[in-house]
Amino acid sequence: MEQYETLLAAVAAPAGDGREVFDPATGDLIAAAPADTTAALDDAVARAVAAQPAWAARSDEERRQALHRMADAVERSADALAELLSREQGKPLNGPNARFEVGACATWLRVTADTPLPTEVVVDDGTDYAELHYRPIGVVGVITPWNWPMLIAIWQIAPSLRMGNTVVAKPSEYTTLSGLALLAVLNQELPEGVLNPVAGAGDLGAALVVKPELGKIMFTGSTATGKRIIEASAGNVTRLTLELGGNDAGIVLPDADPVAIAENLFWGAFINTGQTCAALKRLYVHDSVYDAVCLALVEVAKAMPMGVGLDEQNVLGPLQNRMQFGVVDRLVEAAKASGARVLLGGEPDRDQPGNFYPTTLIADIDPQNPLVVEEQFGPALPIVRYSDVEEAIALANAADVGLGASVWSGDRDAARAIAARVQAGTVWINSHGGVHPMIPFGGVKQSGYGLEFGTEGLKSVSAPQVVNG
Ligand code: NDP
After folding, report:
1. Residue 137 · residue 461 · CB < 8 Å
2. What residues make up the domain containing 60?
3. Quick one: what percent of the chain has pLDDT higher than 90?
4. Which of 63, 170, 198, 434 holds its CA 20 to 30 A away from the CA of 140?
5. Position 1 pLDDT exceeds 70
6. C-alpha span between 79 and 58 (Å, rounded)
7. Are residues 94 and 74 located together in one domain of the fold?
8. Is residue 62 annotated as part of the catalytic site, yes or no?
9. Residue of minimum CA distance from atom 38 in ligand 1
């Protein structure tokens, strides 16, 4: 089993070099992260191009076995990966956090390895015969965020490699060490040049996406950066999968049981301390159950310890970076200034060395308040009261993003009827945010386009080819 110190030493920059990385819980220095130049990026792309034909020439079975070996490697180094992830990202070891994320990396690798993608016979009528094949695209560029830095990387890398592509992967500048550590572990099982890390802050992402050698870019991050990537992709007509986050709504119907749904509501909103693309970010609750839902949520929230990730009892951590602390702080202050009612939290220590923002629940808030209409991406949930479900659906659909949504009810059919009218890539019923390696996932509107996971995910990193005749 690989030790934390060995793993960190393998990816950190030499002393005096690189960018200093600080623990978001304590402010303590972790190590320096390497900062690659654009020349290093050119090398990485060249290596990916050189390695691709041989990787594509391997049989699907060989590549599937490679993914399983990568899962074995992740499992061998699971403790060290989780510790580094917890220190750098801030998420606790326990709860749906660091150990969970590392475990899910192995699961996603294995399921992606075993997902069938047979050649489709699209016409066979005695006159015409045509098959649809899924060929490798070539080199895929992978740009990943800081909230789930290992799992999101796996979501992009695993299907890309399975389908015969090689990869150039750039971790977020906020979680470079975690990203590089995962890539180093995966590379224990891959031939040279198949998976190529580049690390840096500033303009490396922009330099990567204009490379003509890339056939596809997978990006998870902000809508603003996604739009710049769309513009850049025009130059080479590069294919894109964009997962640009959202402002997910939840609608609680009058027949929901407040106590029964409270824990799922809580984790829907506060998983990874709210720093999750498909977290519940605005909750619309019918007047008849409003007070009971608020009360039940406060009770659950008060029982969830927040603190340093390496302390085993904690299930909520700090915000990963000060930029995000500033976003949450600004939005909660706007809510307070509007007269909304603070049920819990809302009073951060702004002088602490870390980035802890307390678990915050805000009631009786105007539906147009900035905390409702902007993405907070942190541990602060606005709870909006409604009396007419048509109004709740209209408010849910008013956003220009649509990644996920949820409907909460004792009547599954009633919930499904509402779900059909909500504009979102996924609508969960009586839960929020759960993903599964066989279930396609993607957004509508400005949450991006393209599906990940399952058969659809494999297709999205392939070049379809019709063989006709
Ligand atoms: P961004 O989404 O803006 O992503 C920044 C990453 O994109 C960096 O790695 C950066 O690399 C790269 N990048 C920047 N410009 C370009 C470009 N023109 N072309 C290609 N790549 C580029 O995230 P931030 O970290 O700035 O977070 C901002 C907001 O994004 C958060 O407040 C949150 O709302 C949202 N977010 C959403 C996530 C999700 O899961 N959907 C995850 C994280 C954040 P480089 O520095 O080298 O240019």
Report:
1. yes
2. 4-244+447-468
3. 97
4. 434
5. no
6. 32
7. yes
8. no
9. 221
